[in-house]
Amino acid sequence: MKKVLGLVVLAVLNAPGVYAAPADVTVIRATPDGITLQAPLRERRYDPNDPKAKKLPALQPRLDTSQPNESDYVYADASGMTLYSYTKDTAGKPSCDGECAKTAPAALAPAGAKVFGDWSLIAREGGARQWAYKNKPLYTSIKDKAIGQVAGAGAEWQTLAFRPTEGMKLPAGFTVEGVRSAGGQVLTDPAGKTIYVMDGNAKRKEDCNVTPCLARFIPVAAPELARAVGDFSIVTGDAAARQWAYRGQPLFTFGGDLGAGDAHGADVDGKWRPLMMVRYFMPSGAKIAYDAARGALLTTANGRTLYRQGATDHSQSSRSIPYARPGSPALGRAIGVADGCSGKCLTQFKPFRAPANAQPSGHWDIAVRADDGSRQWVYKSHALYTYVGDKKAGDFNGNDIFNIPAFDAKKPTDAVWVVGVQLGVALYWTFMAP
User: Fold this and answer.
1) Cα separation of 162 and 178, whole Å?
2) Do 216 and 260 belong together in one domain?
3) What is the DSSP letter of 372?
4) Are residues 347 and 272 in the same domain?
5) pLDDT tier at 260 (50, 70, 90 boundaries)?
6) What is the pTM of this model?
């Protein structure tokens, strides 16, 4: 991905701020409206024998601001409170009521909630409906006081890890991986490369088994002894070659994908898309775009770059690096919304507003700003903004702008001390990677 040749090719295929992966509406969504994904808060404790610990403020334990993997996330409700299953429940029948319900309230679904896949609703007395996942009734816990806490977990109460493709039947060596530029979890071959299908034309042989198509898209070969499994079958391509297919659609990789996680072949000629198995929620006012220099990033529907804030101590920082990962959810929560950008800051950076009827889902939360009561989109715990200096789609003029906050170093609860060291020399703005 970082090779000069690869960047030249990709710059031709995808203009900055223009490319957005097409969504396959037939693919099951990762979460219903009102169900979110949260990275659990973790704690790192000081070694009492470490002489450096004595020089740090009295903040033990400290937050772990490492980057979570997709498999680290757990299901939560619309407010971000962790969801739990109860081991005493039988399939589809909640048994936590009375005194039990006072500490573990049922996770109730809003009116009009839609079910699909592993998600269902259980009727309760009074007409309320309770969320269930894989027939397990879901609850919250009064022990959790903030997003990401899992204080309610125990022998009888279990969190639900984000494993949407668990149990899926796949050919040997194939996996399902989260590909950020694709907006979901896609099928990958044994080498970790994204797998594609072509839409809109049933005559695939004429389109894809001849030059110049093969110079870009390569059939996924099926070994001689391979046999059909689940929705995967084997078709015969040009020269009687055996090729994997999914629900009858032949599978291909793209020559321009230089490594695992790349999805540069999406929509190259209007027909190709990654074979997405799980689709992440995306608000109607946002999309995933691709920039040759920065990789995948979030923009508004009209291509305006979306920004988040991070903290730096001017030492080793990951800001602005190409193909950067999203920021730490713990740090995003600590910076907050109105605390992170208010007053004069709002003359430059404008909150990415959420409509009145919008509901949070997946990695997208909605925060209510304390300064004006407006609703603002939050992605992976980072409040999102646009920059007034960006005049057209693809501009990044808000990148690397620094704010010097007036933190009180004597208050360990300030974001300046969020990881136990004084990171709050400055807050900086950077594009939001999906």
Assistant:
1) 12
2) yes
3) T
4) no
5) confident
6) 0.83
